[in-house]
Amino acid sequence: MDTVEGVLHRLNQLLADVERAARTDVGKASDLGSSERPHRASSEKGSDAIDELINSRRRASSVRGLRDSEAFERFKQELVDGLVRVDAAHRLLDLVEVILAYAGVRR
Asked: Cα-flanking dihedrals φ and ψ of residue 43, to 5°?
């Protein structure tokens, strides 16, 4: 798989693993945020930034797919155009696989 197509195939597999993990972890993440937070006693000097954050309303995050990002499209185009070497792309994907393994997304 030392071709551009091989790199793109491997990259798509990694993205599929990340997307699958994100879908299954959505419930876990929302469970963490929904539990009651213990109220911290304010210091005698008044509340600080941490107190304000803890006592603030819940915040929401938006999740965007990597597959549709401008950076991903630019990487693919530069790979196809020969601006990124295939062996360098494979080394990058090796690193990404190690990171995903540590994060428990990939084995």
From this structure: -75, 165
Q: Residue 36 in 3-state DSSP?
A: coil
CA 34, CA 18: separation in Å to the nearest integer?
Answer: 24
Q: N- to C-terminal Cα distance for the chain?
A: 20
Q: Which residues contact 15 (CB under 8 A, 6 or more apart)?
A: 66, 67
Pick from 62, 60, 67: which is nearest to 18 by CA? Answer: 67
Per the CB < 8 A criterion, the answer to whether 90 and 96 are in contact is no
pLDDT tens sequence across 59-89:
666 667 788 889 999 999 999 999 999 999 9
Cβ atoms of 55 and 42 within 8 Å: the answer is no
